Amino acid sequence: VNAVIVTIGEEILIGQIVDTNSAWIANQLNLLGIRVKKIISISDSADEIKSTVYKAINDFDLILITGGLGPTNDDITKQALCELYDTELYTHVETLEHIRKIFAKRNLPLTYLNAKQAEVPSNSEVLFNPNGTAPGMLFNRNGKLLIAMPGVPFEMKAIMEIHVLPRLASQSGGFTIVHKTVHTFGLPESFLAERIAEWENNLPSDIGLAYLPSPLSIRLRLSSSGINRDLIEQKIQNQINGLLKIIPQNIFGYDDDSMVSVVADLFLKTQSKLALAESCTGGTIAHLITQLPGSSNFFIGGIVAYSNSIKTNLLGVDPNSIELFGAVSREVVEQMANGARLKFNADFAIATSGIAGPSGGSPEKPVGTVWIAVSSAQKTVSERFVFGHDRERNILRSSITALNMLRQLIIYGEKNVKNEEFFS
Amino acid sequence: VNAVIVTIGEEILIGQIVDTNSAWIANQLNLLGIRVKKIISISDSADEIKSTVYKAINDFDLILITGGLGPTNDDITKQALCELYDTELYTHVETLEHIRKIFAKRNLPLTYLNAKQAEVPSNSEVLFNPNGTAPGMLFNRNGKLLIAMPGVPFEMKAIMEIHVLPRLASQSGGFTIVHKTVHTFGLPESFLAERIAEWENNLPSDIGLAYLPSPLSIRLRLSSSGINRDLIEQKIQNQINGLLKIIPQNIFGYDDDSMVSVVADLFLKTQSKLALAESCTGGTIAHLITQLPGSSNFFIGGIVAYSNSIKTNLLGVDPNSIELFGAVSREVVEQMANGARLKFNADFAIATSGIAGPSGGSPEKPVGTVWIAVSSAQKTVSERFVFGHDRERNILRSSITALNMLRQLIIYGEKNVKNEEFFS
Predict the structure, then answer these.
(1) How far is B335 from B328, CA to CA, in rounded Å?
(2) Other C-beta atoms within 10 Å of A319: how many?
(3) Are the C-beta atoms of A369 and A309 separated by less than 8 Å?
């Protein structure tokens, strides 16, 4: 099955919003062995919708459309679908009732625009939208499936999960694509490529390899396809076992793992507790950790010590150390880490202090200079990094690097991987 | 000028990464009056690249390609461009020298794969990439401009800003599109639409209006085009002045403003200082604030009080209040706010305490229940919200709502807008 995703909306074409829907849909389809061959974004003009969707129905078996169904969209998309499928709009009573209930629950009168959202093309199957007023619509003609959904991500996802994905799964006939992604940290792309060149050259021809670089890690995606999922998974796992022998310390996780989820798992496994003392990362490490459900089981809390007085008053940093070495120094960041660990009665602590930029640098400590310390009752490890000039990148890099140092302190008891290599 | 953006890479089609490049490019082109009519994502197969780019050259005046140029891409994109433009690859000496320098600076040997990135089609103009090893390439034939760039966002952006945008600006002949975006908070889309219906109906026909909803705010984008930029801007501003009379308290900012940047501006203007006591938002408010350059001028620091002991020990919350009312209560959140304000010697403070989910709810306090307090020396305002079941959304909604309450406390001295309406 070859699929295409069409997103409708001027806001994507003028760059006001980023299309996150397509990535989510593509990922879901992929797991069912459905290949998304193309993603197309167009404006919500009737002509453009008709010509693009007409061609899509011609070229692909499965057409997924998002957007163009909001209460203020003037039904352009629905009218275009009516023309393509030679039909007319009618009011879908159950949907109207659903919309009525939503408004009654909010103690609000039903507006004309919202009531109109219950109108659908007469030969479509209505896909109930539990999270909003615009229903999904499914057209099935000549073995081609077209599904139109609202563009609001959590409405689209609900319709996909309740209606679309179960239906597609039952049609996939057992054919499946297996992807396994290996997350590495500490080696730039070309170095990783050379380090694992021999392994890569010896990969069986039915396993595909893709490099997925990001500013924070390089991911390696191994893919293979067939009918027997267990067998394919085993074949891929054998190759990953080989990779683990070559770059054991650079591999920190797999698939949906992230640096923070891997660290969280270590804490939950060892039943230890974490505290933070963040200066230049300004709450970002806490933010990343507390995004995870269940993080309250190991994360006690943290201090965002943006001013020096907080560093001394709340974290017990010696004012003389700040005077002598500056707030961005090994001495201060180690005292911050140990101060936080003791103050919060935690097993481990992270501290960061640096110049995130864009201003505030000096010849000895240019913008991007960051000291990071991780500490346990047994050991304090600290390291200096010089990142770049972009504030948001510096904050995120510092945060992920700090989590990696903590990961290594927990696993190896000391730092073993040269983090600098990645960022030099 | 009609433009198309083509992104090349399997990782977008399988949903492993979100295409943020296209939104950025579209936004930049739009400011030059260049309309992006289509955004297309395809895989890095030679056939797909050739057929899509061939059609793009036929249908559009300007073709922008990102991706498919990494050191591990096997030159598929460059070979396809060679075939389309009937030419061959050669080694661009200046680029090779640039790559050499990057590696020398890192004290690393030059790899074969990286050296190959200096190869470009012989009839293309090479666009220097200061942030990476893969150069951009420009083809100009029959008045059609095709530009291929690497997919790494900060490399693409550098090439666009240095080479592409200045060139396009000089060709635009003064024609320009003006967009002005109004950010509103506190009214759901259909309510906003009804509230401003009369204003909307009276808009001049040469001003376009678009609703851009998001979970956190509804943006209204007014657009118009022509030659005289000042005149267009004035025409749009007149309409916004009318809108301001209808929903004064719901409008919190314009264009690139965000809730956090608006609050930051208020602090800088009034030279006041901010402290935070975050429980359920877990550092997210601190993270949002410290992303802003210059936030150290008003943000002193915060405490992420994830455990109750931190609330009592560091923020001075009365343990009896936690015992009697629970950590998620008006009493506790107000004490947290005032505790943080006094502890950090700040003028204003925000405190949050809630059940972000997905677990931890009870019949009286279901998942999504959040208490937020904002406080100054003169006044403490607190309010209870019941958001949804999604942890990340609850955290973000709580954070933005808290910032909005703070904004209102600073501007109006008390809360005037019914936040609940938005989230009910």
Answers:
(1) 12
(2) 12
(3) no
Selection from B235, B238, B215, B212 nearest residue B225 by Cα: B235
Are the CB atoms for A280 and A395 separated by under 8 Å?
A: yes
The residue in chain A having the minimum alpha-carbon distance to the alpha carbon of residue B32 is A14
List the single best residue of A6, A13, A108, A114 to mutate versus B (max B Cβ within 10 A). A13
**Helices in B271-423 by DSSP H: which ranges?**
284-290, 308-313, 319-325, 330-343, 391-412, 420-423
Q: Is B224 in CB contact (< 8 Å) with chain A? A: no
Identity (one letter) of the amino acid at B315? L
Instruction: Residue A59: name the closest of B52, B420, B138, B273 by CA.
Output: B52
Cβ atoms of B78 and B69 closer than 8 Å:
yes
Chain A residue with the nearest C-alpha to that of B72: A211
- By three-state DSSP, how is residue B150 classified? coil
* DSSP-assigned letter for residue A130: T
Before B71, cis peptide (omega within 30)?
A: no
Inter-chain CB proximity A22 and B16 less than 8 Å: no
The residue length of chain B stands at 424
> Could you please report the per-residue DSSP string of B81-121?
HHHHTT--EEE-HHHHHHHHHHHHHTT-PPPHHHHGGGEEE
Indicate the helix (H) or strand (E) that contains B4: strand B2-8
DSSP B388: -
The whole-chain average pLDDT of chain A stands at 91
* Interface check B254 vs A, CB under 8 A: no
User: Is residue A385's pLDDT more than 80?
Assistant: yes
Confidence bin at B414 (pLDDT 50/70/90):
low
Task: Give the pLDDT mean for B290-308.
Answer: 94
Indicate yes or no: CB of A303 within 8 angstroms of CB of B300: no
Spell out a b/e string for A104-136, using b for 16 or more CB atoms within 10 Å of the CB, else e.
Answer: eeeeeebbebbbbbbbbbeebebbebebbbbbb
CA distances from A54 to A5, A49, A81, A84, B283 (A): 13, 8, 10, 7, 48
ω into B121 cis (within 30 of 0): no
B391 touches chain A (CB under 8 A): yes
> Minimal Cα distance from B193: which residue of A?
A72
Residue B45 has pLDDT above 70, yes or no: yes
Q: How many residues does chain A have?
A: 424
Whole-angstrom distance, CA of residue B341 vs CA of residue B337: 6
Give pLDDT, residue A215: 67
Tokens of A226: 């067939």
Radius of gyration for chain A, computed over Cα atoms and rounded to the nearest angstrom = 27
Evaluate whether B236 touches B207 at the Cβ level (below 8 Å). Answer: yes
User: Using an 8 Å Cβ cutoff, are B177 and B223 in contact?
Assistant: yes
| DSSP code of residue B161 | I
Give B143's strand partners.
none
Report how far apart, in Å, the C-alpha atoms of A309 and of each of A126, A209, A283, B342 are: 61, 51, 17, 14
Specify the amino acid at residue A12: I
Which regions of B193-331 does DSSP assign to beta strands (E)? 208-213, 218-226, 251-254, 274-278, 299-305
Residue A312: which pLDDT band, with cuts at 50, 70 and 90? very high
ipTM: 0.73
- How high does pLDDT run on average in chain B? 91
